[in-house]
Prior knowledge:
It is built from 14 helices and 19 strands. It is α/β, with parallel strands linked by helices. The strands form 7 sheets. Strands 2-9-6-1-3 form a 5-stranded mixed sheet. Strands 10-11-12 form a 3-stranded parallel sheet, with helices on one face. Strands 14-15-16 form a 3-stranded antiparallel sheet, with no helix packed on it. Helix 7 (194-209) runs parallel beside helix 8 (226-234) and helix 8 crosses helix 9.
Amino acid sequence: MNTNVDLIISGTELFKNLKLNEPNGIKNHEIIGNLKQFKECFMHFFHKGSAAERFFTNSLDFEKVLELVKNLKQQWFIGGNAALMAQGISKRFSDAEILLIGPVGPKLKELLSQNIQVMDDTLVAKDEVHLILEYEAKETIESIQTPQANRFIVSYDIKNSRMELIDQFFNITSIQKPDITIVSGLHLLETQNSSYRSETLKKLTNLLKNRDHKMVHLELGSISEKSLMKNILENGLLSEVNSLGLNEQELLFLAYSSETAPHSNYYMEMNGSLELIKIIDILEWVLKAYGSKEHSNKLDIGVWSNSISSLISGSKVAAKQACGFDFDDLSNEVALEDFVEMKIPYEYDENKNIFLRMDQKKSFKFNASEPVIKIHRGKIKFYFTPTLVCKKPLKTVGLGDAISSNGIIYSEFNSS
Length: 416
């Protein structure tokens, strides 16, 4: 349900031009109240090389920033999880019928593929703009060097943050009866007060509970406020979806917000490479805590009929998209090897074989020609493959959406 246009600029160039009299600082802010907090929050994630998304509380400061970036090199792209996933599916699966429901302004309509259906009553006069501050590894701002490439997203977005089209979304999908329904945009509720969030989440949960949808995928998005994540966990929403898309930071924040998940403080303690064992522990807890007891396919990765192919396609599309390679062009895959690297903790043996520690009792040998590792915990099957990281990415936004959308379509429609 979240659709917008992304305006991509260089984060380092912006802050060279943003003249602030206040002393420079590094501090996380859940919501951005002024330009000083904007810079502090950007620097907090820049010095770690971590992705993040934050929201301005007033339009005036955000408009000042948009005015400033007019003098910088800029690129316009489709934005918002829903629009990005719709566009990705339309490009890679030409036979798919796609209906996009969200506020669509003139610029977004111009950028969308023609085979994406947009209802007239979801068209709006002015686009919602999200500003994407990208940076490459080892770029420097005022003596602070970032360890890796990433991006910082800021916006002042009313229609998406209030989920104003939620009724239209469910009215339309109840008539169209799609094979897969993708819900996104919950992270934008951070800008709303607690009562509005609670009512909206309660409404969404009830609508999903009474749905006539075959499959529902929830793309979670970057949430920074513990109370919002806790509300999502406590109102039963996760038990009403069949599939959940989130990255490792979002998963760790989910565990942290729950206060009951294993390694719930890992979000605050993590420094450096992720420990795969802890990630699997948390995933197992999520599946057991929020999977339905009545339906085995509730929030169950194993519901997808072609897990290995969907996983590999999701990993591959992220690497290719970041490096600017065409996903369907198989001739570029040898060249791709020079542009990517594997950034997960691993061990070598004396024969230079790679082993991944994914269980307390043993390590698993990684075979590049068969890059999916499968492990069992009780009745739950876990499939793992590393996402290859582009050394010099051309675009970092939308990689998670590409992984989810590719994985969903491959598993559901390409099981043969």
